[in-house]
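Hi all, posting the design record for the shared folder.

TITLE: backbone redesign
STEP: 1 of 1
STRUCTURE INPUT:
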C-alpha cells in the first residue's frame, strides 16, 4: 500500500521562471524503481534523504543529492493547480553533476523517453517527463542551476525544505 507521502506528492522540476517538465505522474506504488541506479551525484551520509535521478532504459542515473543543494527557498503556493513549490539552487558541482548525468543518459538530445524521479527518505515522490525547454537551456549553457520543485502537499514540501537546509 502506498504511503501518505506517495499518495499526496506529485511533483515536477522546472527551471526557475520557465517550464521544465511537460508531464507529471502520480508517485509510483511502493516496491522499488524496477531498475538499477548508477550514482553520479555527490556522496552524502544519507543519500536517501533527497535525490533526483533520470531514467535511462532499465536503469536510473543519479543526478544529485541533498548535498548538491546550495540554497533552498521558502515553500510557496504554485501558480497553477492546488500545489506548492520549493525554489532550489544547486552548488556548482551539483549543477555539473545534474547536467553531466542528463548528458550521459542521452536525455538532453532526446528528452522524451527519459523521466526525472525525485526521492525523499527512500520514497519516490514524483516522476516527471523531462521537458524540451529545460533540456535546451542546459545544453546551451544558459541554465542557472535553479529550479522549482513542485509537490501537491505543503507538509511534504516543508519536510523536504527542512531536510535540505540541514544537509
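Okay, here is what came back for every position:
SEQUENCE:
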Amino acid at each position: 500500500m502506498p504511503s501518505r507521502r506517495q499518495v499526496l506528492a506529485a511533483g515536477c522540476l522546472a527551471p526557475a521562471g520557465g517550464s521544465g517538465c511537460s508531464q507529471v505522474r502520480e508517485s509510483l506504488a511502493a516496491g522499488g524503481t524496477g531498475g538499477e541506479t548508477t550514482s553520479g551525484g555527490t556522496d552524502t551520509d544519507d543519500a536517501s534523504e533527497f535525490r533526483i535521478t533520470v531514467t535511462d532504459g532499465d536503469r536510473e542515473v543519479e543526478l544529485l543529492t541533498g548535498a548538491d543543494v546550495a540554497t533552498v527557498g521558502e515553500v510557496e503556493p504554485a501558480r497553477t493547480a492546488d500545489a506548492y513549490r520549493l525554489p532550489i539552487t544547486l552548488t556548482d558541482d551539483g549543477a555539473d553533476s545534474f547536467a553531466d548525468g542528463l548528458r550521459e543518459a542521452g536525455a538532453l538530445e532526446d528528452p522524451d523517453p527519459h523521466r526525472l524521479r525525485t526521492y525523499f527518505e527512500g520514497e519516490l515522490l514524483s516522476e516527471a517527463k523531462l521537458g524540451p525547454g529545460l533540456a535546451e537551456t542546459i545544453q546551451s549553457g544558459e541554465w542557472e542551476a535553479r529550479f522549482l520543485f513542485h509537490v501537491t502537499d505543503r507538509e511534504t514540501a516543508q519536510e523536504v525544505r527542512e531536510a535540505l537546509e540541514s544537509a
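COMMENT: Confidence is low (pLDDT under 50) at residues 1-11, 17-48.
Let me know if anyone wants the other runs.
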